[in-house]
Specification:
The protein has a domain of 81 residues: Nucleotidyltransferase, domain 5 (2-Layer Sandwich). 32% of the residues lie in helices and 16% in strands. A six-stranded mixed beta sheet has the order 3-2-1-4-5-6, with helices on one face. A hairpin with a 5-residue loop joins strand 1 and strand 2. Helix 2 packs parallel to helix 3. The N and C termini lie far apart (104 Å).
């Protein structure tokens, strides 16, 4: 008769270090794949305002015109350079696609005021009815009317 010596089995254990590693990888994956606030292409120093209203999250994005400190105009979210005459035709074509469009003017603090007025005139002559002037932090839009 031959007796076998049975080896004692260890109780199953959960390796916590491996679980923590997996959770950190998942956390990093989620942080990288989340969408972040879209930053404009053109860096502007926007003035502050205390009476502006923040636009709603369900609104359609406005047509964006940016004016830098030297007075050059840029149109659209990709901030492509445009002249005053080209701006009016670009606004007219955008309004013909969507008549309920709005305009957002982002002008640098040091931008020439005359250029801002030219943009407002171009928008009105293109048939735009609503617009806003973007400001920094305290408020984001002031009505043009």
């Amino acid at each position: 008769m031959r007796f076998y010596v049975r080896k004692r089995r260890q109780a199953p254990a959960v390796i916590i270090v491996a679980l923590i590693d997996i959770l950190i990888v998942l956390l990093i994956f989620l942080m990288v794949t989340t969408t972040f606030k879209q930053q404009p292409v053109l860096k502007l120093a926007l003035p502050e305002s205390s009476h502006a209203q923040r636009p709603g999250a369900t609104e359609r994005p406005p047509l964006l015109v940016s004016i830098d400190a030297q007075g050059s105009l840029r149109f659209g979210p990709d901030a492509r350079p445009v002249t005053s005459e080209g701006l009016e035709t670009a606004l007219a074509s955008a309004i013909s696609k969507d008549p309920a469009s709005t305009l957002a003017i982002s002008a640098d603090k040091g931008a020439p005021w005359g250029q801002v007025v030219r943009v407002i005139d171009a928008a009105r002559s293109a048939g735009l009815k609503k617009g806003a002037i973007n400001a920094f932090m305290k408020a984001t839009a002031l009505p043009l009317e």
